[in-house]
Amino acid sequence: MTTKAQRQHLIRELLASSEIGSQAQMVGLLGEHSVEVTQATVSRDLDEMGVAKMRTAGRTVYAVPEADAPGTLPENTLRRVFGDWVLDVRWSQNIVVLSTPPGSAHVVASAIDRSEFDGVIGTVAGDDTLFIVAVEELGGAAVAGRCRELADL
Question: CA dist 134 to 35, 70, 97, 110, Å?
């Protein structure tokens, strides 16, 4: 029997070596490695591992975060995430609200959390809406301006 840690390690390896676009595809690949799981288990594993769907070459595939520690996401990756997923930026005082396509807010939140995004205290993501809390000294207007610049809006 495979432990959760072993299964998640295999998932990480599969994601690094293959373009996987669905949880069903992941269930099949795990089965080929004698790991029998349900789609619900794969869904929980992907969520716990911080795996996100990213657009690459016109396809949407699962991707392991480039780094697990904050402050390590390269600027060009942050710019690409914003350009691909941020549809609108609004702000009020020290809160910035980003709109994304359905199911994509967590991708942008994760990118912000793993970057050196000046003036951000933290993020909260729903399905298609993301809140950013900016430090009071900088304020929402400055952070919103940076978000618009990154998204090319």
Answer: 44, 16, 11, 16
